Amino acid sequence: MKHKISIFIITYNEAHIIAKCLEKLKTFDEIIVVDSGSSDATVSICESFGAKVISHKFENFGLQKQFALEQTNNNWVLSLDADEVLSDALISEIHNINHQENVKAYTIPRTHVFLNKIFKNGAESKRPILRLFDKSFGKFTPNKVHETIEIKGAIGKLQQEMLHYTVFDINTAIQKQIKYALLSGELLHEKKKKSSVLKIIIKFPFDFIRYYIFQRNFLNGYEGFTWSMFAAFSNYLKYAKLKELADNNS
Hints:
With about 250 residues, the chain is α/β, with parallel strands linked by helices. It has helices at about 20, 40-50, 60-70, 90-95, 170-190, 195-215, 220-250; strands at about 5-10, 30-35, 50-55, 75-80, 85, 105-115, 115-120, 125-135, 140, 150, 155, 160-165.
């Protein structure tokens, strides 16, 4: 049995990428965009693709995505970020799913694109991520960052990929890594997690070796090396922030 599917996306100043995302969504039944005050052309671009744009103040990622989910009209929904692009093969696969009654959600393989390089190797290549689900059986965690979808029911797996265009330049990569690392440190603090000087000291070199060597990002060339450096630094910064917050509250 085929189901109507609503797409929902949260945005803030995504004019550089949102058209690339939206141009792949013409065959879906509804596109909901929740924008948190973009000052660029994001809203007009979304409206030009027939999306319904709703303005809503941003509190955190989990709450914003849950609000966007609640604006959809169909039970089956697909959550996308503005920098994610469905492949034609994935679109066809989604429209032709033979739904089983107990399956309430599906993971989608997502491939990392960093500095315009598609990562064909490593852990970020075709990493399964839950995005398509029946909203009667799913909701977002209210996390300020790294929000997840909680599902009551079985989860299936789709085979075809979508591409995740993370950043196109070093400057944006730096800003993005710092922003998410600090938010992640705050989230760990709220969860009563602990940090230490030793953990902070060993975090960067250990994680760089893990990403670059053991997760085979060396096969992704210069971009794989650079991403591994950024990812390791982000983890260092997250635990440094966690320690700072713990010290300030001791």
